[in-house]
Automatic annotation (TrEMBL):
UniProt record similarity statement: Belongs to the Nudix hydrolase family.
PROSITE patterns according to UniProt: NUDIX, NUDIX_BOX
Catalytic activity: 8-oxo-dGTP + H2O = 8-oxo-dGMP + diphosphate + H(+)
Descriptive protein name: 8-oxo-dGTP diphosphatase
Gene Ontology BP terms: DNA repair; DNA replication
Keywords: DNA damage, DNA repair, DNA replication, Hydrolase, Magnesium, Metal-binding, Mutator protein
Domain of life: Bacteria
EC number: 3.6.1.55
Domain called Nudix hydrolase: residue spans: 1-127
A GO molecular-function annotation: 8-oxo-dGDP phosphatase activity
Cofactors (names): Mg(2+)
Pfam families: NUDIX (PF00293)
Organism phylogeny: Bacteria, Candidatus Terryibacteriota
Organism per entry: Candidatus Terrybacteria bacterium RIFCSPLOWO2_01_FULL_58_14
Amino acid sequence: MQEIVVAAAILEEDGTFLIARRPRGKPFPGKWEFPGGKVEIQETPESCLMRELEEELGIKVAVGEFVAEGVFQDEKITIRVLGYRATRLHGEVKANVHDEIRRVPASEFSRFDFAPADVSIAETLSPPQ
């Protein structure tokens, strides 16, 4: 079984988190996610996030502490998403890859259809009910 490790950025500013909708033609199209990407060979999750956020969103970030992990598994693949806090250093967020980007408070995460491996990260960040 193939395993893919993905690094995801938890970008919080002014009480809101940046989430992005996956485009058509990609796995889980139309689902929301914390932006990031596949960790390449010889790359740390932190360096992956710095590279991916510059490519996907046009921003430079500092990567902070690990927050949560989410896992999706079926008969062919395991996707392990590692969520790290990140701080935007400079650049304006642009949707270079995603259909849409939004900033939402964690209390509204339940309104969004997250990709399977991102669900537990969203739940970790959500306030208790």
